[in-house]
Specification:
This protein has eleven helices and no strands. 55% of the residues lie in helices and 0% in strands. It is an all-alpha fold. The longest helix is centred in the N-terminal third of the chain and has 21 residues. It has one domain: Orthogonal Bundle (Hypothetical protein af1432), CATH 1.10.3210.10. Helix 2 crosses helix 8 and helix 8 runs antiparallel to helix 9. It binds fe (ii) ion. Fe (ii) ion (FE2) binds next to loops.
């Protein structure tokens, strides 16, 4: 899909990893094949709005200025608007719009979505997004370890994150089905990877 290929290389690789983890979570939870299709597409496209954010802001090593942070926070809404022009379904569009919203609807952004809380598929994507963001190298910090990530998810379960999704992620980690080391194919830009590839599938 052209709109994804235009993304910053690091954002594109992040989208593929978020898709893989979201699908692993969704399969473990027992979503239907329709829900998994919606989740896979929405998770893959969740950051398409970042194509409108300048690369020097996305890759900035220093802390963002208030103006730059405001600009970054526009990406879910911009992505949602782009998804509308592509004719994507509501479930997919909601994932794009809601992936930075808290599960309880009381924080995150954007707050004006028309819904009280994010959809369950959005809440799964949020957990996958945070796991990948924390365990990946960022221009402004080194990758954090999985234990730190799990602590953060657990501390914020019921508020920022859906507690049952966090519990499923925890069980995947304890069973060795998810590690912080991604296959090399998902660490770098590799557009030839087919959609739906998941990590740690049984
Ligand atoms: Fe995002």
């Amino acid at each position: 899909m052209g709109v994804v290929a235009e993304l910053d290389e690091g954002v594109f690789a992040h989208c593929k990893r978020v898709q893989a983890l979201a699908l692993l979570l969704g399969e473990t939870i027992g979503l239907t094949s329709l829900e998994l299709n919606q989740l896979g597409l929405g998770a893959f496209l969740h950051d398409i709005g970042k194509r409108y954010i300048p690369a020097d802001v996305l890759n900035k090593e220093a802390p963002l200025t208030p103006e730059e942070w405001e600009l970054v926070q526009t990406h879910p809404k911009l992505g949602f608007e782009l998804a509308e022009t592509l004719g994507l379904g509501d479930s997919v569009k909601r994932i794009i719009l809601e992936h930075h919203l808290w599960a309880d609807g009381r924080g995150g952004y954007p707050r004006e979505t028309g819904y009280t809380t994010p959809s369950f598929l959005s809440q799964i994507t949020t957990v996958a997004d945070v796991v990948d963001a924390m365990t990946s190298h960022r221009p402004y910090r080194q990758a954090l370890d999985l234990a730190t990530c799990l602590d953060y998810l657990t501390e914020n379960a019921e508020t920022k994150f859906n507690a049952s999704v966090v519990a499923v992620f925890q069980s995947l980690v304890s069973q060795g089905l998810f590690g912080s080391e991604w296959p090399s194919s998902l660490q770098a830009d590799n557009p030839s990877i087919p959609l739906g590839l998941a990590v740690g599938r049984r």
